[in-house]
Amino acid sequence: IRNWNMKVPISMNIICPKSSLNKSILTQQYMLNFLLDIAPDKSQLLLTIKLAGILREKKQEVYYTYTSNPAFTPVLYDKGISNCVLYPDDFRWLKPDLTLLDCRHAAHASLYRQLAIDYIFIAMQLPDQKNIQDKDISILYLPSTPYLSSGSGPRLETLTKRLQDIKKDKERNIIVGLLGKGNKNSKILEDFYRVIKRSSIRNPRYQFILLTDIPNVYQSSELPDNMELFRTLNLNTILPLCDLALTDSHSDAWLDCTFAQIPVLKYSPKDMINITPMKLEQQIEYALQNKTTLTQKAKELCDFFERKNREINKIADMLIERAGRNRYNSCRLRPHTY
């Protein structure tokens, strides 16, 4: 702790009587520092952005590690959060009073312990999950929050108009493929696209819209009319027009489809390797036949997220109180400065 190079208000170095440890001292007189150390994924940002916004509204400082900055800068700016921390170098000048640590960054926990920085693991809250807090580990499950990103352009407008026209034909089914983020093996993805191509030829009523950001994947110039390959577009516009989504195992795609309330068929790399046109068509038919049930499940999960998001204010107060105790205890250990 002596090695921290921080500017601390003189008043914070006064060792206060224990009886003076109250909510007013902890939350109103001093800004507390919260660090969100999360994976650079949209799904992880959507777990924390509402909480981060409420903490800012309560006059606390909120920082994200650099990993979450490049993709989400506009979202963070919308919440008044513009500072991002370079992990772990910036700990020379910033000591968080509390860190919210993505479970996928569990390896960072040893450094936080070494630096005497309190942390709580965070993960997505789903039905039947309860928050865990004991002497060995703390996990805070947070609900996701929908975020409507903006974005338009000639390609998107042209595609949207075409899908709207296809949608008028009740015999057609629009199937979107979001398969490139959770599987970086372009060979596996190309093989899966070939299976989709064969299924599209055999089933002209399917309209496949495949979105990917993997460069040079499946450069086939002989795609059937009902199969199109695009760079990733604004999903808020595309997904509501779709009847079904084929996704990889990455949580971003699944979450986007859940908020759009469309059925999802999820494929791991192993699933992609083992799929055949017949298996794919059977799975698609099952999902389309049970679309009402699957859509209802997605709606119920969205309702669950909405209910849990109403409790975020209480969670923020709990975290502020915990961070305030950490600041108080840390200040008591510091030598006096005058």
Topology:
Blueprint: H1 23-27, E1 33-37, H2 42-57, E2 61-65, H3 69-78, E3 84-85, E4 98-102, H4 109-114, E5 119-124, E6 132-133, E7 138-142, H5 154-167, E8 173-178, H6 186-202, E9 206-211, E10 227-230, H7 235-238, E11 244-248, H8 251-260, E12 264-267, H9 269-274, H10 277-289, H11 291-309, H12 312-333
Parallel strand pairs: 1-2, 1-4, 2-3, 4-5, 5-7, 8-9, 8-11, 9-10, 11-12
Antiparallel strand pairs: 6-7
Helix pairs in contact: 2-12, 6-10, 8-11
Care to give the gist of this entry?
The chain is built from twelve helices and twelve strands. By secondary structure, it is an alpha/beta fold.
Describe this structure in words.
With 338 residues, this protein is of the alpha/beta class. The chain is 42% helix and 16% strand. The chain is built from twelve helices and twelve strands. It has helices at 23-27, 42-57, 69-78, 109-114, 154-167, 186-202, 235-238, 251-260, 269-274, 277-289, 291-309, 312-333; strands at 33-37, 61-65, 84-85, 98-102, 119-124, 132-133, 138-142, 173-178, 206-211, 227-230, 244-248, 264-267. The strands form two sheets. The chain has a seven-stranded mixed β-sheet. Strands 10-9-8-11-12 form a five-stranded parallel β-sheet, sandwiched between helices. The longest helix has 22 residues, at 312-333. The protein is elongated.
